[in-house]
Amino acid sequence: MRRFLRPGHDPARERLKRDLFQFNKTVEHGFPHQPSALGYSPSLRILAIGTRSGAIKLYGAPGVEFMGLHRENNAAVQIHFLPGQCRLVTLLDDNSLHLWSLKVKGGVSELQEDESFTLRGPPGAAPSATQITVVLPHSSCQLLYLGTESGSVFVVQLPAFRALEDRTISSEAVLQRLPEEVRHRRAFEMVEALQEHPRDPNQILIGYSRGLVVIWDLQGSCVLCHFLSSQQLENVCWQRDGHLIVSCHSDGGYCQWPVSSDTLQPEPPRSCVPYGPFPCKAITKIFWLTTKQGLPFTIFQGGMPRASYGDRHCISVVHNGQQTAFDFTSRVIDFTVLTEANPEAAFDDPYALVVLAEEELVVIDLQTAGWPPVQPPYLASLHCSAITCSHHVSNIPLKLWERIIAAGSRQNTHFSTMEWPINGGTSLAPAPPQRDLLLTGHEDGTVRFWDASGVCLRLLYKLSTVRVFLTDTDPNDSLNAQGEDEWPPLRKVGSFDPYSDDPRLGIQKIFLCKYSGYLAVAGTAGQVLVLELNDEEAEHAVEQVEADLLQDQEGYRWKGHERLCARPGPVHFEPGFQPFVLVQCQPPAVVTSLALHSEWRLVAFGTSHGFGLFDHQQRRQVFVKCTLHPNDQLALEGPLSRVKSLKKSLRQSFRRIRRSRVSSRKRRPAGPPGEVQEGRSRAERTGLQNVELAPVQRKIEARSAEDSFTGFVRTLYFADTYLRDSFRHCPSLWAGTNGGTVYAFALRVPPAERRMDEPVRAEQAKEIQLMHRAPVVGILVLDGHSVPLPEPLEVAHDLSKSPDMQGSHQLLVVSEEQFKVFALPGVSARLKLKLTALEGSRVRRVGAAHFGSCRAERYREHHLAVLTNLGDIQVVSLPLLKPQVRYSCIRREDVSGIASCVFTKHGQGFYLISPSEFERFSLSTKWLVEPRCLVDSAETKNHSRLCDRPGPEKASGRARWVKGQVAFAPAPAHPTLPGVPPGGWPESPSPVNSAHPPSSASLPPFVCPTLPCKLVRRPHSSRDQGFPERGA
């Protein structure tokens, strides 16, 4: 049997790989892209959001999340929970109805689709006859009333979706039961509203678009009373006691209709246009809610003066003489009001207003004076300003974590102290084993710090760099500034603000040292800021240093945008990260690479023209290096230049084709064919000596040095390694360019006692030119044990072992086309993996990560996580460069998603599936962050806002519905809480490096709380059209 095995196939290694690697898309962070519907269950305290792509997302207490995807990629139009049950009905824009249910299996809840149904009319009927406009779930949970464009109300029985034709309420039947004077007014058209009587389930309210509202008796099939308005009807609200109906209309007004025994009320006793007398836009939805204090809450959407405020997206709240129009920066999709959940209660007593806007979710506290907003623990608007870059930092020390939270809490004083009101279900996910930060840079010059430790992505702190520069707007100006007597009483709410004062403020690179608290931020206009964490307010001047990257070049003229003007004199800074030095690159091109070494107090930066090194302790420039090629004129135009030379682009394309043809003719054999063929075969054998099987390689054309942007600096890397000789190691800086060149500079950093007296010196020691001139995307130095060098100060804090400085070090250079290992200090090639030649893909992102075994607690391996332009993720071993596993993660057409991907140190990753959502994935069997939650139907028996939740000890697993399939994963039973877990954060485990895998005899019994026992193929997000493998 041994001879039939593929060469290099090791069964023991394959088993070990199954213990180390497993691909899972675990959770989506952020706000759903293109929301289209909102639903809420008062009994479950669960919120549902539907999107245009057909996704349904349910949210409860922090950590309680479910997601379902309709089989059809149609937009969800309406979502309705069945009263008191863990079931909901969705209406899509293709007029289909879908029944979903939350079912408890094995101690956990799963969301799955039970039935689907499309309302059909009689043969030959117009499509509008059955086009559903309104859905009303009856309190019996057995019937659905469906209002249509034809004016008829159809009745469907649940859960089988069986149409009850004998119970249909046609417009003709209603017309026959109305007085004669009403029949001639064409009062019907489509059904706009359906409401059940709050106290009597045998009565429903039907509102027609022409202004007619009737109360229909279901048992007697008759009209109990009707109301007729002269304005087009938009929506209605039935007061809790059933004695008052409030209707809103297209003229921006609303009417109050007392319900009495009189069958006819020609005119409403009271009509009101809140923002009249000038023409106003329609009020599309209204709530009339009673309180114990006697004065009701009136909450409505729209109604603003058409001429002056017709473009505003507003929801107004009126109560006790106070009126506020909450102004949103994006279109309002829908809203609801959280009230007393017990239907037998005498008053509504609203306590929160929940608004689903197109770009964010806003919750308003209605019980606190001033009606402040409530800070959401999830559904964060990540794209409040467009995301331009991201940076992940693992295992944050507790002291730094607490300081960041303290600085962020001072920024949240405008939020309400109310606990998050949408708190249904119980999160059973284990407590995060460590504290992780995800930093996002934005177009408006801000950096946001997110808690990425668990399922919920929570905003901790926001840093703004705008104060350092002179812009058109004053940072002290308030967006809510408005006089007290202004009318309408507008108040801006929400964090979404897509407009940037100056595109040059955009953040392009971020680098945070978690041990020292130093932060480096680089922007679009060549600005590099070095910041330090300060717990107190400060007012000081930011020192400015200019770095001229073209100082030795002549004849170049920058055609791009101008530099940002720094603010002169002292600047006031809030507690948090405060800048103390500004390095301005000249020309002011986009900063393309950034590296910070807090132990040496050095920061390196690179642009399309070159790179430089700055000593931020002495506030002194160490050196600059120009990498600009003489023929590279496009690098001088800048990303914001409006004028691009079409002739120049065409000329360069033709030149490239001509060079390719000339080079192919030059490569024709000039000597004896046998000699050439022998040399070629010898070269191929040498290049593939480390590959087990030799597949057919693609022909790769070498790039020319005259191609555009060859001097573009792609990566910068600090390392303490052997650069000059094999006896003494020294600090070094490595830089890789777009033209396949690697520069190595030897640094001389004075000791700590003379650090301020002696300057840091640098000298170029090496220069490597890759043969194909492929862009260098990553540089890594491995110690004597073939382990990546630790981060600065990591060894000093006893969080990593000291690197092996006895054995020979190795340099790993990752280009877009291949991986290559060099021996240091001689820089002789050892190993090579040709990715492009073998697979036709190019490297886009690379990161070093360690993978732990789910069987052996202390066993781990160091590998490279690689993302290609095809959207595939591969794991490549170090230092042998052996491909381990390969998964399909991102669609190859999703260029923005591939460009936004960031890897973590523990084999996880994030990428943008939409401008507002991060998809989180894991390559490790040991590190898995995903929601595990329980929504028990027993909770519906208690209608109070506070109830006893089932303990986490009842849960042993989690289930997720995806396209009709359920993937079940056993899970540990631990509750998760927002903020710091009870008992404090666990100590970070000391990393353990092992050069040899454990033997089978030394492995403990298999216990893997995060390894799924059933593998399915599923699209986790609406943008993933493929079906990636769930298991390794």
What does this structure look like?
By secondary structure, the protein is mostly beta strands. The protein has a domain at 10-29 and 845-877 and 884-936. The chain contains nine helices and 65 strands. Strands 14-15-16-17-21 form a five-stranded mixed β-sheet, with no helix packed on it. Strands 23-24-25-26-36 form a five-stranded mixed β-sheet, with no helix packed on it. The radius of gyration is 33 Å and the shape is elongated. The two termini are 25 Å apart. Residues 1-6, 477-481, 640-645, 666-694 and 939-1032 have low confidence and may be disordered.
Biggest sheet descriptor: 5 strands, mixed
| Fraction in beta strands | 35-45%
Strand order across the largest sheet: 14-15-16-17-21
Based on secondary structure, the structural category is: mainly beta
Helix content class: under 10%
| Low-pLDDT ranges | 1-6, 477-481, 640-645, 666-694, 939-1032
Count the DSSP helices: 9
Please tell me the overall pLDDT.
84
Rg (CA only):
33 Å
